[in-house]
Design brief:
Distance between the termini: 111 Å
Number of helices: 25
Shape: globular
Strand content: under 5%
Structural class: mainly alpha
Strand order of the largest sheet: 2-1-3-5-4
Largest sheet: 5 strands, mixed
Amino acid sequence: MTAGVREQPRGADSPRPRPGTRLRLVGWLTAVAVLAGVGYRLWLLVNAAPPTNSDEATMGLAALHIARGEGFPVWFYGQQYMGTLEAYLAAPVFALAGGPSLLGLRLPTLALYLLFLLLSWRLTLRLTGDRWFGLLVVALLALGSDRLVKNQLIAGGGYPEMNAAGVALAILAVDLAAGRPGWRLARWAAWGFLAGLMLWVDPLVLPYVVATGAVLVGFCRRELWGAAGALIGAAAVLGAAPLLLHSLLNGRNPLHAVLAASGANATASWADRLHGGLLLGPSLGMGFCAPGRCDTWQLWWALALPLLLALGAATAWQALRRPPTEAGPTSPAEAASPADLASPAGPALPAGPASPAGPASLVDPADAGDPVLVAPRVAAAIRLALVLAAVVTLGAYTVSSSAGLTPVESSRYLSCLLISLPVLLWPVWTVARRGPRPSATDRRGRGRTLARPVALALLAATLGTAAQATWRSAQTAPATRAAEARHAELVTTLRQLGVRQVRAGYWTCNRLTFASAEQVVCAVVDDALRPGFDRYPAYRREVDRAATPAWVAPAGSPLANALDERQRANPDSLDLVTIDGWRIYLPQ
């Protein structure tokens, strides 16, 4: 009798074979990508790459002073902007390690990169629900060109922490706007504190603060009139307290210093600004170029970026304008199988009535600890906000003189564009995964048929170009390690010679002082042997008090040539000690 029973078709509620298999696979692959990104950067740090400089050493000296209790600087030494958060993060490492080191200075920045990577994956899932797209985003962010790893690892002020903070602000805005239950006041406080903190650390991330804040105002106006508004204001003041207190006590406006540093007092032609801001800047700043330069073929990303911005804004706006009654799945990921999208505790639920805590949400109350997808209108609003923040960031950089005067180095000002990377690639990913409908025979169907190969080619080119730039950057690590070894030999030689005060160029001085843990103190001179810019004036005062300070210069540098000329003019004035890559001049 059982032989004649026909097997019924598997329904939507029927158990699936091997549930969660694909979920476990994408989870493992994502973990591998995260480990690869962190491992690659740890390998760079062990090899003293990317190369350090005196600006990073200045942050290291601030951390050393904090660790010793000798000072608690608010700003990067020698200027009235860019907070010293990295120094405060590195100070405990120095205290535990018993002294300063380049690796100790950069371990907090490596931790900030890991936080940025994990938060970007989390934000991608909250906005799209597609774990495979989350894997793509993590894989892209795990790669690292020369410019990217400099922004992420060098403790030069602001850049390592901005991206992590920007993504955290977006995630908090998603949770608050979607009405995620539990810890709402804590989330309001966290958003306000991060916003204020970034105002102190570096204003480059302000477009993302304003954009995510606008989403909160749009979705949570009533809540902001109550305790949430007061809490977010108090937390923002607490985060920006170093800036506010310093400005009040000293009567200085940090905005003036920021504008001066951005090139507001310099001049550059609009042709140079547009070339640096819209062509070189995006390709360099987002990790698609070789160290220090961009080959012509690598500039294709600069042409694709405006299209991605327009497409991202258009699709987000369309989803945002959709009536709430039609706010069903807005992407293939939202309509995919539960094995792909749902968390281990269960799938996301359709939008329901607004809760007292906030707007309607797609978060399953049973899955509140690990939500995947939020209400489509909230996700669309955050996507639009991140696109607009990227447009403002790119526009502000393009109109600045820095884009025209120093486009290669100042492309670091576009570091925050990585925060918007998931929303820029999401429309392309949806086209690449969806493909044409089998019955599509009209013109629209033919357009879809063409769109999918183009989308696949764009994603492949993005991965391939970033991977090639990463490979080129990794090839420079041995040379960087050798240069760091030569500098270590310089420090050892000065100690053996009993030299404690020296004069040197700007890019030598603070690096030398930091590497010697202030056993060698340096005052800056220019190539004509005149006093230069000392970020920490106490060092110059000590050198000026010394009876016979030495001179240090890189071999073959203009400063070395000037000192050689002085030695030739007066052979009895200086004794020369040479080591690999360096020249030490000892006054007789």
